[in-house]
């Protein structure tokens, strides 16, 4: 029996969906689905990404992955929300990456919540140009991020430890956590800010407490029907689908046969990255994370301990490539791609292969995403963060 675990080294490509399908193919043909110790397990990039997806934080589904294009699903949610179904949008929405491209044209305003695209998104020079085209930018976050600094309005949200709610992990386990401390100053829970904004826009009955929000989730999301706060606490979480309050939850999916019926094998052909090394840009640059910092550094770089361990960024260079250019370990160098250039320290190490560069994207002052390619997977619209053509130069 074998379990497959993957993260964004698989998905962040212009053929990321094909990569995931290839993994699913492998699990199917080796009979590693529906059994203890098996399965395909995506390791999410941030806490509660699974929960956000379950709650419909995707452009094509409502909560519980109910399609927005389904007339039945739209009617169900219209009734639950007390609004006319005719007002429901039947079109699939935009992803973060496509929103940026449409700023100033189709999109005049953006409401950014808990996200920092001015560090996280690919081709940051392009992102900055697009954001400047907006008529209105609202940012809701716990700190004044690089994106919030550009906002017309900033709503101060509360951190996870200051907010009660549920979290869902990669094994579909839903767990409840109460607030550990009070939010400082004028900071408010995200749900309270959204509810107050909804009230000012004419929606008086918008859920504004954890209890009322969870009641709506139970009512409208079949996989969460059987969950209650009491059960989540008493049973150390429940794994969906949990369709009724006497259901024990579902530890393993696809037992006996795939949930969809017959397994779906996908015929796939190899697709190269959108950029390959060339004479002008002879190296491959991959970006990702490091142990000591988290995502755009919004939180971890405010930690005295973590920032003390790694206070500034660097780029990993193979000794052969460094020797060819006379680059010494720790030396400040220039890194360039077709989209821009940055200066950062060289970390000369055999941990990266010859011809390859690796750079963490946590550092706004030398942002790796000034360099990355905004080529998108045609299905998921995820950018090709993991490979682009680049060069390094001695300063």
Q: Can you characterise this structure?
A:
- With 395 residues, this protein is of the alpha/beta class.
- The chain has three domains: 1-43, no CATH class; 45-239, Rossmann fold; 283-394, Barwin-like endoglucanases (Beta Barrel), CATH 2.40.40.20.
- It has helices at 8-11, 16-29, 49-54, 71-81, 96-101, 117-120, 124-131, 190-200, 210-220, 229-234, 304-309, 319-325; strands at 4-6, 40-42, 109-113, 136-141, 153-156, 165-168, 173-177, 238-239, 283-288, 314-317, 332-337, 340-348, 356-360, 373-376, 383-384, 388-394.
- The strands form five sheets. Strands 9-13-10-12-11-16 form a six-stranded mixed barrel.
- The longest helix has 14 residues, at 16-29.
Q: What's the SSE blueprint?
A:
Layout (H helix, E strand, L loop, with lengths): L3 E3 L1 H4 L4 H14 L10 E3 L6 H6 L16 H11 L14 H6 L7 E5 L3 H4 L3 H8 L4 E6 L11 E4 L8 E4 L4 E5 L12 H11 L9 H11 L8 H6 L3 E2 L43 E6 L15 H6 L4 E4 L1 H7 L6 E6 L2 E9 L7 E5 L12 E4 L6 E2 L3 E7 L1
Parallel strand pairs: 1-2, 3-4, 4-5, 9-13, 10-12
Antiparallel strand pairs: 6-7, 7-8, 9-16, 10-13, 11-12, 11-16, 14-15
